Amino acid sequence: MSTLDLVVKAIEIIGAPRRGASYLAIQKWISSSRGNVTINRLKADLKKAIEKGLKSGILKRPTISKNVTGLRGYFILNKDVIALNKMKDKMKQDEVEIAEKLEEKAQVTKVEETKTVNVKKTKAAAIKKTKAAAIKKTKAAAIKKTEAAAVKKTKAAAVKKTKAAAIQAPDSAPAQGLDTDEMEWRFKLFLLMCAMEMAKSNDSGQGSSSNED
User: Fold this and answer.
1) DSSP string computed for the chain
2) pLDDT for res 169
């Protein structure tokens, strides 16, 4: 509380409605209220406070001290100025409170926005991770399917080849048998022809001998 505030409070308590309070009465009340202040220091502060009060319009002279100057005479409160100052102070306080609330709200909004951004980032990371896992899974399934199809195709080709070989083997055996029989038949025919030629040659030889006899 400033010295001027103490002056205003002193006049409110000890001052008469029309006359107000004198410098000495104000000094005495403040001295009794603030016992730790020296008289010399109080006089200097009180003089400055009263001069400031008169200049700002918070204090004024009553009618009986209208022509008095300095610290003599009496001082009363200018209630209109005080009320206006109180209103201004209240407006300033309200402005401070509003500014504090707005700042607090801005901080809360900033925190909420940060949380929202973090949640969005977390969701985006989760979606990205899920997509990557799905793509990896799909690729793995495709590779597995391709490998299975290749194995199946290889097995089918092997089975087909085995079946073809099994079907062809019985057909080739009789063919080989027929070739052998044919060769044997031709060999026997050759032997028979040779025997016939030999017999013919023998008959021709015997006929010549008979004619000579």
Assistant:
1) --HHHHHHHHHHHH-BTTTBEEHHHHHHHHHHH-TTS-HHHHHHHHHHHHHHHHHHTSEE--GGGTT--TT-SEEEE-HHHHHHHHHHHHHHHHHHHHHHHHHHHHHHHHHHHHHHHHHHHHHHHHHHHHHHHHHHHHHHHHHHHHHHHHHHHHHHHHHHHHHHHHHHHHHHHHHHHHHHHHHHHHHHHHHHHHHHHHHHHHHHHHHHHHHH-
2) 55
